[in-house]
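Task: sequence design from structure.
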């Protein structure tokens, strides 16, 4: 049984449009779990009134992304899920997205599967999956591997955001859930997929599966674009900061190969301290695809 799990908080319009795109899916045999972490904008009421088919879990507002997702995934497993797709509500799904992911899953039943990402207005490809270079602490968007004319309709990556990610339940059973203790908001998905690859699972970016994303509608991106002393502090230490130093250091010790740990830490910290000032508003298209600086 397939379950879709989405955490939400105070983005009623995004959530509504997201659920509408789910209703248009060509494949219908799935259940949707929304974890509303204390929204005050009547998101839950909107879901109850307009989407009665949705399983709504209402929480108190102190979970953030990782634990809210964990609660939804655990509920799905308790209800008999064999596969879970984690999807954020700031996405719009192509009508055949779920079917495409399931088709790939039939070929690769033990792998984690991610779609490619398109800009929600222009449909320009902006996310081709990610690879970390452990020597230099750089995160590379693998756009150059997407070729619609190629017979090779997927490629592997060593990390993945969970913005839209099909995960076999056996992965959770083997490696556990998202690390909400160390990474309550960002980084948890990269940490999770690295743990999965270390356990022998692969992460595939599926070229035929597509979602549309809103590159600028993120508190993390706002912090980078609207530069100030306060936002620089939030960038380095806040829960929405892409350059959160504490999370980066923990992530490094948990996941970096020992032989590259020192250089990964040094380059990564320097990049987080400096890149905040070098990324300019005119580069918003690139900012939209940065998971971590």
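Answer:
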């Amino acid at each position: 049984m397939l379950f879709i799990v989405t955490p939400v908080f105070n983005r009623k319009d995004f959530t509504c449009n997201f659920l509408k795109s789910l209703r248009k899916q060509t494949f219908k045999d799935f259940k949707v779990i929304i974890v509303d972490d204390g929204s005050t904008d009547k998101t839950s009421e909107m879901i109850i009134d307009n989407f009665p088919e949705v399983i709504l879990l209402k929480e108190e507002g102190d979970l953030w992304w990782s634990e809210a997702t964990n609660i939804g995934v655990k509920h799905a497993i308790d209800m008999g899920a064999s596969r879970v797709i984690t999807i954020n509500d700031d996405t719009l799904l192509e009508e055949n997205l779920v079917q495409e992911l399931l088709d790939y899953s039939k070929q690769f039943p033990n792998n984690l599967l991610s779609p490619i990402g398109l800009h929600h207005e222009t449909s320009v490809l902006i996310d081709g999956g990610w690879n970390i270079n452990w020597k230099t602490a750089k995160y590379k968007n693998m756009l150059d591997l997407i070729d619609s004319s190629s017979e090779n309709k997927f490629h592997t990556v060593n990390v993945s955001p969970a913005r839209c990610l099909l995960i076999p339940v056996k992965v959770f059973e083997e490696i556990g859930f998202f690390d909400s203790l160390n990474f309550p908001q960002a980084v948890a998905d990269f940490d999770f997929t690295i743990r999965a690859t270390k356990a022998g699972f692969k992460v595939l970016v599926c070229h035929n599966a597509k979602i549309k994303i809103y590159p600028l509608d993120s508190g993390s991106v706002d912090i980078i674009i609207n530069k100030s002393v306060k936002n620089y502090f939030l960038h380095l230490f806040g829960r929405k900061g892409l350059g959160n130093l504490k999370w980066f250091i923990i992530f490094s010790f948990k996941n970096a190969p020992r032989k590259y740990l020192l250089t990964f830490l040094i380059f990564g910290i320097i990049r987080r301290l400096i890149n905040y000032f070098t990324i300019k508003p005119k580069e918003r298209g690139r900012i939209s695809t940065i998971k971590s600086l």
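The longest helix spans residues 261-278.
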